[in-house]
Amino acid sequence: MKRHPANPLIKPEMVPPSREGYRVKGTFNPGAVRYNEEIVLLLRVAEDCVPRKDYISVPYYRFENGRGFPEILEKPLNDPQINLKDTRGVVYKGRDYLSTLSHIRLARSRDGINFTVDPGPFIYPCSQSESFGVEDARVTKIGNLYYITYTAISGDSWATALATTTDFSGIVRKGLIFPPPNKDVSIFPEKINGRYYALSRPHNQGFGRPSIWISESPDLLHWGNHKCLIRPRDTFWEQQKIGGGAAPVKTSEGWLEIYHGKGKGQIYSLFLLLLDLDDPSVVIKRGEKPVLFPEKSYEKQGFFPNVIFSNGLILKDYGKILIYYGVCDENVCVSETSIDELLNTIL
């Protein structure tokens, strides 16, 4: 993979906060799609509050009539009802508050390198199932509709929601399609033998490690016949967990999926997986080594060091692929490769 010399393409300072008193701490993990001669990225934008001396300030959402409104909880540090859990949040009067919350923001580009970020959110939390934010969107075009899966975070853990759009100016929410704890959901771009398919990552609790699963559906809303597709290997790169990325790409050799692994030292890297065209629950080949791992300083140093995470790619002419990825839970980067190069790597 060839990293672009302009990396990182998008940084927090390029994105305005969603309200006064908030500040943008991370712009990362973008879904990606072509629309109207542009490349559109669905950024995860993480925000916290502008700090104030001797006070604790955390963001939260107030919900009213199906809409979410960003608010700030601000209390003196010596307030006896404030309990500082860790760097991730606080408890006030028995209620949890996170130090950062995320929403989905659009960025647009004609060349795939120079992006303009929309001034306001695209997908904003609107219900209690999204009370801790929305994250890590993935986009699949089927027919004339764009199907967007994203992670909905709340006190009940993380789940996966579905929304649709025709024009990236508004969405139709379809609700939760995978209950908690389940995330990293990507939908295949076409029916296979009359059924829709999706990859997901339920969270194993008590047994095993988080793995990639596959499910099928008649209507993109009701999912069943769940099967574990691949599990983490006991290697430096995958020993903690794995999860799917963008929607699989159809090739002459099978469905090609780029997934992430979390390994020793909490390092995230990218791997290849090839699935059968007629039965994607059948694994043809799995890459032994990562095709992209933290090497550059901007991939190794940041808010959460040594993280490469991809959930968006763009198919270009002549089989070229742009792989957009988040680094260190902070910035957006891109690498270019081709279907042939990836297939030659895995086969």
From TrEMBL:
- Protein name, as recorded: Glycosidase
Drop me one GO molecular function for this one.
Answer: glycosyltransferase activity
Task: For this UniProt record, give its keywords in alphabetical order, as a comma-separated list.
Answer: Glycosyltransferase, Transferase
Family matches, as Pfam families:
Glyco_hydro_130
Under the heading InterPro entries, the entry gives:
Glyco_hydro_beta-prop_sf, Mannoside_phosphorylase
